[in-house]
Structure to design on (1244 residues):
């Protein structure tokens, strides 16, 4: 597997090279390698030379055949991604992470015997300690002379001291930029921000380059056990961030050296990996991370393509399983302001995190949902980016289908919101049953019952940009159902632990990379969200990114983040014995317990009764 | 010249590639290069293809003949060097730049939800801000677990904050080391110090790798005008320091990663070059350096072969021409303590710096002496290192000569103290006259009147370690006389400006790299020092290095350095119209004005009269 990675063969070893997912199967045509065998491969396949590359030790030169499925699973490239509008910071409230100030240094008196640095330091008299980096010192003599003492400094506050990041001759305050970046387990998104206006100039996203080494945080942690693989993961995510920067900055006419600050937000494991810190203790009792909030670092230390002294701030984490992405998300919901009643914040990513807040309390939990809603593990799934089908409307009888594509044109795949609408449509039209399997009686020409797994063709090959059909298989539906069951069951158990019911929730904030729009009613229909008035829901999009952007722009928001992290408590659901039971019960559409979805069931029964049959119930087997 | 440097051809372009010293002459055998010509080379030589390589532009491939004089002028290699004993810091007063502390982290309570960093940070509660570097964070998870919470931290105080430099599992306080380093224009010396005992473990020195690019600070500044040459100078001195570290640390069984702090001391230009900061404004009116005292930096930033996070402290400078080497020197003299009367501190290096101190004042000046007393520009000169002749005793008549060699064995060259004794001996024995030229009437077999320049052979070829004779030419003597005249005239003018005479000075401290011992009387005889009671003099050796060592060991000394730098005022002698006159008058042995050296003259007249002739006076022409 290491050799395949080095050779640039892209595949998604979901399990983190544990030998359990079977995604890295290749066929040895000649040469020797040792491997212990695996039940994932039939004896026949093993005889033909198929191996799990993550488990094999190469004993000499090999000729290897890479299955088509591997080479085709490479994630889509860098792309502008749609993000709901960020809540603006009012110009009067702008206090970005780095501050640009034009100064006129007083001329030196004759015989004063002061250095350039002394002259500069006088500007900070009484303002506490100022730290100067070597690169700033190197630029000092020319900068102070080029415009007769007129200079522009860029500063960041770091604890009780100030850090001088950059020195430019003349007045250079007109251009001042920063970056907000969300490091998700599956996707990375960033924004270029004009720090003078608070305006987001550009947004871009891509799959996290680490997904080839594991699909979720646990498999990444396992992959990172060897120091060289920890370093590989670090380099992979840094490359993803840098390729997004390299793509966005030139198209906006901004130089990398003009970016003097950045805020990163991500789950605790992702931040450990970005920093090259071994995250192993996150998954070992008592689940203690190396750090919850890194100190301010420099872009150069992290090898980011920004001004090397750029200040890098991290949104604070609550613990091993509730990271800085969640504090950033809660910041966006504004629940830290008074008078919001009881709110539920749900961030649906590869991990699902939930936060319940009242007037003076805030409690969180986490569950592992998998990356299905981000398009990973779904045959035609993709990120919410150009070419993704984001809405699907299946007409009665399943004959006609309407869909919308992000950015218009021919579709390339389906993103999270499209997948929810498609599954909801297939379910309400009776094309799939409550177990997520195709209803043979209702199968029209779009349902390919002879394929394995059985598949629903949403868009025929001729109408897609890839030349291949866009379809959803029973296996894909099962994946999506597992994801929604994880979220729903965590939510139910969490409410129970806190002693609340759905009716007690005044407002539900939904975060995630589903796309620009999310049809809440359809998400309730498939049982992703608990049934309550859809009007109480608000879809906020990628709140980790938006929260990072708020922190980039405002000191008050940075302080608020610290308060949120301090106030939030954490409930560990993984130790709950009820969890497995709740999860299994949620592996139906919308749920095995109809009483939890009375509205959905009533509407469906009405619809189905007209058609004189009811979708069957059968035992689930995945 | 750049190509020769890259090719490893070592020569000393004293003038800093200005085309004025003629040290870089090579002969073009074939190929083309452009150059403007130079009066330094006779027309005949130019026709033969001789060029000044620093002025030439290569136009294609060249075949170049490098004169023997160039390839032989390569300075002697790394060597242990003799340094007078450093004044010890009492164990009770030890407070080194980096501090090692063994800590036992309190175990985590169940469900406490704290990170490793939180656990560590608790140890600093109420102690102000602590800064953590990325490399320390990376070592955190393993360090805190390896010995059940028992760790050793290494800290440095930087202004109002603390900087955590290193984290080790277990109790590791027994080994704790630092480095003191003097960056001289001509020589670099360093000491490895045991920070637990304050004991100097090893001392080593070498020529500054920059001397191939200029003999003094002005020629280095000129050389550094191009950015790539500034970088070349930076790399050269860093290489010198690193080669000293690479030579000393292994022989003491100390790993580079065990050195967690260093103090550097040097003149203002040397420190600029070590940091890669353009020093050009040091020689341009109004002579403003980029900085007088760099902030604390890390060894990694400076590319030193130490623990990358090692704290690097710089002794503070007073101005462009009185650097941190002088404040370190004054620290060694202890004149900052009360009750010392009026003292004169003279640091004789490539630059000479003088400091006069009274009870509540301290005034300094500087002059350019050249590197003659450090053995550079003297045909058989060398640093005070193994193989150097450090004492010379010429018996009456000049027949028998006794000398001592540092480290014993056959001599390789003569160091500063040996040169002073040799010139004094030649002068008092009448072998050279007051103009420094050989007295033909007194020339015995050791004086080679037929050579050009005329030469005195101190050690015949068969008795040296190089197989070549060790001798002193009239040109060498002229160089030494220029150096001593620069020091003496600066001293005279300085005293006059301050309104003092020699008689007012209670104590004279001499610093420099002459060797272990310096014969004060002989230095007075040649007119290097003003004539006063030799008992008032004290030779301290390399005080820049010793002061750096004191600063390494004690916080009180670091504070004292800052006070010294703040208190010391500076007089610019270069603007004095009397200086040229005073200098010319001092270009005699001991001086044109006998009344300044009544004791020396009386003794000499007594000696000479016995021999019925008096050394002649002739016009000086160098």
């Amino acid at each position: 597997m290491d050799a395949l990675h080095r050779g640039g063969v892209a595949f998604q070893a979901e399990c983190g090279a544990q030998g359990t997912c079977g995604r890295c199967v290749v066929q040895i045509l000649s040469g020797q390698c040792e491997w212990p065998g695996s039940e994932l491969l039939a004896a026949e396949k093993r005889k033909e030379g198929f191996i799990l590359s993550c488990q094999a030790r190469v004993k000499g030169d090999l000729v290897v055949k890479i299955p088509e499925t591997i080479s085709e699973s490479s994630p889509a490239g860098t792309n502008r991604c749609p993000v709901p509008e960020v809540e603006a910071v009012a110009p009067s409230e702008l206090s970005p992470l780095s501050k640009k100030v034009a100064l006129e240094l007083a001329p030196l008196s004759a015989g004063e015997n002061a250095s350039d640095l002394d002259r500069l330091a006088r500007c900070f008299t009484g303002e506490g300690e100022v730290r100067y980096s070597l690169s700033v010192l190197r630029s000092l003599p020319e900068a102070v002379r080029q415009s007769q003492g007129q200079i522009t400094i860029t500063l960041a506050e770091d604890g009780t001291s100030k850090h001088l990041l950059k020195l430019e001759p003349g007045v250079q305050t007109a251009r001042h930029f920063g970056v907000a970046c969300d490091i998700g387990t599956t996707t990375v998104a960033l924004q270029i921000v004009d720090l003078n206006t608070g305006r987001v100039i550009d947004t871009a996203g891509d799959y996290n380059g680490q997904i080839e080494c594991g699909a979720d945080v646990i498999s990444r942690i396992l992959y990172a056990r060897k120091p060289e693989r920890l370093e590989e993961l670090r380099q992979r995510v840094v490359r993803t961030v840098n390729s997004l920067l390299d793509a966005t900055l030139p198209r906006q006419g901004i130089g990398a050296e003009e970016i003097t600050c950045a805020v990163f937000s991500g789950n605790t494991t992702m931040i450990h990996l970005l920093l090259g810190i071994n995250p192993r203790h996150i998954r070992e009792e008592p689940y203690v991370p190396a750090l919850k909030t890194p100190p301010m670092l420099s872009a150069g230390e992290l090898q980011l393509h920004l001004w090397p002294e750029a200040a890098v701030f991290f949104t604070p984490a609550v613990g091993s399983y509730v990271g800085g992405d969640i504090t950033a998300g809660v910041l966006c919901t504004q629940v830290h302001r008074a008078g919001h009643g009881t709110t539920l914040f749900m961030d649906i990513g590869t991990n699902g995190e939930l936060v319940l807040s009242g007037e003076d309390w805030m409690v969180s939990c986490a569950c592992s949902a998998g990356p299905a809603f981000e398009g990973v593990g779904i045959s035609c799934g993709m990120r919410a980016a150009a070419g993704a089908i984001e809405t699907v409307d299946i007409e009665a009888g399943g004959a006609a289908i309407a869909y919308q594509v992000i950015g218009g044109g021919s579709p390339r795949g389906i993103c999270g919101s499209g997948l929810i609408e498609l599954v909801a449509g297939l379910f309400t039209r009776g094309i799939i049953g409550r177990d997520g399997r195709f209803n043979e009686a209702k199968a029209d020409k779009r349902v390919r019952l002879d394929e394995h797994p059985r598949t629903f063709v949403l868009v025929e090959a001729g109408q897609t940009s890839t030349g291949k059909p866009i379809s959803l298989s029973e296996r894909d539906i099962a994946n999506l159902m597992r994801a929604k069951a994880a979220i729903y069951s965590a939510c139910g158990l969490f409410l129970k632990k806190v002693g609340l019911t759905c009716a007690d929730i005044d407002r539900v904030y939904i975060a995630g990379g589903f796309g620009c729009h999310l049809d809440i009613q359809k998400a309730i229909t498939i049982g992703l969200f608990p049934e309550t008035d859809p009007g109480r829901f608000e879809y906020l999009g990628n709140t980790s990114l938006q929260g990072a952007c708020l922190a980039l722009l405002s000191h008050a928001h940075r302080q608020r983040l610290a308060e949120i992290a301090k106030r939030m408590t954490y409930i560990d659901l993984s130790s709950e014995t009820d969890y497995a039971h709740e999860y299994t019960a949620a592996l139906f559409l919308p749920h095995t317990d109809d009483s939890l979805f009375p509205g959905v069931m009533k509407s469906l029964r009405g619809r189905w009764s007209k058609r004189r049959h009811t979708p069957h119930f059968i035992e689930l087997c995945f």
